[in-house]
Design goal:
The protein is an alpha+beta fold. Helix content is about 20%, strand content about 35%. It has 13 helices and 38 strands. A hairpin with a 2-residue loop joins β22 and β23. α9 packs across α10, α9 crosses α11 and α11 crosses α13. The protein is globular and about 90 Å long.
Length: about 700
């Protein structure tokens, strides 16, 4: 499999010193690393840099004729303008992937003799640094159309012996996404190195050369590839047969966070292109969630003739100053909720009044928008799932994976979600893409599998899907799918049997499986690769025995593996990073499984048990600690919270003496709570 050679070059030998500029031409073999901002963006970059902008010269003798600038780029996040002789000819593509792109230079821009080429950052309000690498630059005498149509490739994609929608990725000899000679139309959505087809047939031009071409259709399918070497004026045909490798029978692939430039006003995907990409990624239940509008995608799906591949649902990303909330299902005719409110209680009341939407999702809770981070320590005490502004937890779902806005700690939001479960909130975990683009952060990469009939993707029972979603009967997928089953066993009456079923295609790997009980790690399996022989794709079914809890407990399985660097399914760099480290991962999150230890027919949360302990102790700390010997850390943490809220002091002699004599496990839980509580208090003080 061809890896991204330009990215490997970047990591190991990026040019760090800007040498003398060539007077007579650009170097078609050289790559330059430079940076906006003072600090390096990622730890893969050296602290040294070439410059804060790129400047070079080239000679031109063909007066009155236009030209084409060809260049390679890697890891562009901010806006960088390319100009010739002070005249802008375009911007670099804002995309982390390595790619080869082209710019048209009009005849009146060029002059005989020496011409000046400049690349400079034009971000209006830059947030952080942007390390980029560009190079392999050439100014060619042909037009872009002539260059990109030197040859012709026809690609045919089938699945189950029928033409199939899909995504085609074209990499050149450097492992870069190669711009092609095609444009989006009624069956294609096209970006540099990426072509989505709705009908399985596509013809496009490329410069003569050697290419590796991949075809896929999202997470569930294989990713076959072929190497093609094609000469000028040649034509070739490439056939791909996709294999379904991940069994998702009985689960509907849902993306709850889908945007278009047409209706959100930013990104690059038109609503027509979005219909093609949804079919191409195998998303079966897409929720239209453009900002503060309610758009029905069914007419567009019909227009693009892809309505048999998915069932569109109308929703809305209610984008407020204090958080973003995806709601569905709604209708285009319903009143739009007031998105200018600044209090969660009022927002949830307004959503109910205007739409009665049964699903309300808290989006990207650890990201800053409008200066507010919902789950920042100053706003949210994560360990006990409590809003510190007194706002209600009025949402019934939350994103734990947003593939367009990933976190430095890939499990941070998962821990936040498990803490909400411990606090007694029935919150559905959500995987979504938040895609605004055709190819940069593509639709359906993060997704939620809802347990319901998926036999007819074009006619999914929306009511049944919504009910299953609301009940938490879902699994979150970002390159892996994890399912969990908990059973009592006759082998050992003091243990319960946990069965974890992890599935993925052969281009994604799982090397770690963890099981959490009330948010605490209780079992872990590690390995270079899990695989059951004879299975399509990758799959492991692991059984582990866990100590039987004395009280009701919620279990969650998390499967992770190394992130994917290749442009055909790149796992994104953190959106608003905490530091410059990169620990990219694929992830699968199981449904939450509640174990009814006392067999009373209902489940009691850690907070519920904590309230019992606190009431039984009548506020006496020593009594609390003695009672906690029969409970886990999550219950003890909530008891510590109740102790603090009742006026108890972590600086008092009572506290120090009680912990000295109390249960060590309870002491650790109290200390853990104290540190989390103090972090929030300091954050609030610093914000005043």
């Amino acid at each position: 499999m061809l890896r991204s050679q330009s990215l490997i070059f970047l990591i190991t030998s990026a040019v760090l010193l800007l040498g003398p500029l060539s007077v007579y031409g650009l170097d078609p073999d050289k790559m330059y690393h430079f940076r906006s901002g003072e600090k390096r963006e990622w730890d893969r970059y050296s602290n040294a840099r070439d410059a804060s902008k790129f400047l070079d010269s080239f000679a031109w003798a063909k007066t009155g004729e236009g030209a084409t600038l060809k260049l390679s780029q890697v890891d562009v996040k901010q806006r960088w303008e390319v100009s010739v002789n002070g005249v802008a000819v375009g911007n670099l593509v804002q995309d982390e992937n390595p790619m080869t792109i082209y710019f048209e230079i009009e005849p009146d821009i060029l002059k005989e003799g020496i011409n000046r080429l400049e690349v400079i950052n034009i971000e209006r309000n830059p947030k952080g640094s942007d390390d980029i690498v560009i190079g392999r630059m050439e100014v060619l005498p042909q037009s872009i159309d002539e260059i990109l149509n030197e040859t012709q490739l026809t690609v045919v994609v089938t699945a189950e012996k029928q033409l199939s929608p899909g995504r085609i990725t074209i990499l050149n000899e450097y492992g870069e996404l190669q711009t092609v000679g095609a444009e989006s139309n009624e069956t294609l959505a096209v970006r540099p190195g990426t072509v989505y087809t709705s009908d399985g047939m596509v013809k496009f031009g490329v410069p003569a050369g050697k290419y590796t071409i991949y075809a896929g259709r999202g997470f569930e399918y294989s990713l076959p590839s072929q190497v093609v070497e094609i000469k000028e004026h040649d034509e070739q045909k490439v056939l791909f047969s996709l294999e379904r490798q991940v069994d998702t029978t009985g689960y509907v692939a849902c993306d709850t966070h889908v945007h278009t430039r047409t209706h959100s006003g930013h990104g690059d995907s038109t609503v027509q292109e979005r219909m093609i990409t949804l079919a191409g990624e195998g998303v079966e239940l897409p929720i239209a969630t453009d900002h503060n509008v309610q758009i029905d995608h069914r007419p567009f799906a019909n227009e693009m003739k892809v309505n048999r591949y998915f069932t569109p649902v109308t929703g809305n990303e209610v984008t407020t100053p204090v958080g973003h909330f995806n709601i569905f299902p709604t209708t285009a005719e319903q009143e739009l909720p007031n998105h200018k409110l600044k209090d969660w209680s009022a927002i949830f009341t307004e959503i109910e009044r205007a739409t009665q939407a049964p699903i309300v999702i808290l989006n990207h809770a650890r990201d800053v928008h409008s200066g507010v981070t919902p789950f920042a320590p100053k706003n949210h005490l994560s360990l006990v799932g409590e809003n510190l502004n007194g706002w209600p937890i009025g949402f019934n779902a939350m994103e734990v994976i947003n593939s367009g806005a990933t976190q430095t700690d890939s499990l941070q939001l998962t821990h936040d979600w498990m803490n909400l479960l411990n606090a007694g909130h029935r919150i559905t975990p959500v995987g979504s893409s938040d895609s605004h683009d055709v190819a940069r952060h593509f639709v359906g990469q993060g997704r939620t599998y809802i347990r319901c009939d998926d036999s007819d993707p074009g006619n999914i029972d929306i009511d049944k899907a919504v009910n299953a979603f609301k009940n938490g009967d879902v699994a979150v997928s970002y390159g892996l799918l994890a399912l969990l089953d908990i059973q009592e066993t006759d082998i050992n009456p003091n243990s319960i049997e946990a069965t974890v079923d992890v599935r993925g295609p052969d281009w994604s790997e799982c090397n770690r499986i963890r099981i959490f009980a009330n948010g605490t790690l209780v079992s872990e399996l590690k390995g270079k690769r899990f695989h059951l022989p004879g299975q399509k794709g990758r799959r492991v079914i692991a059984k582990v025995y866990i100590e039987k809890p004395q009280h009701d407990t919620v279990y969650v399985a998390v499967a992770t593996g190394p992130g994917i660097e290749e442009p055909y399914w790149k796992t994104a760099f953190p959106y608003q990073p905490d530091d410059d480290s990169l620990n990219l991962q694929v992830l699968g999150l199981s449904p939450a499984i509640w174990y009814d230890a006392d067999h009373d027919g209902r489940t009691t949360s850690a907070k519920g048990y904590a309230e019992r302990v606190f009431d039984q102790s009548k506020g006496d700390l020593m009594s609390m600690l003695k009672l906690l010997k029969d409970y886990d850390e999550a219950v003890a943490v909530h008891v510590a919270h109740l102790y603090q809220k009742s006026g108890g002091s972590f600086e008092s002699d009572e506290y120090r003496n009680a912990l000295r004599e109390g249960d060590p496990a309870a002491k650790r839980a109290f200390d853990k709570y104290f540190h989390n509580w103090r972090e929030s208090q300091l954050a609030r003080l610093n914000n005043e």
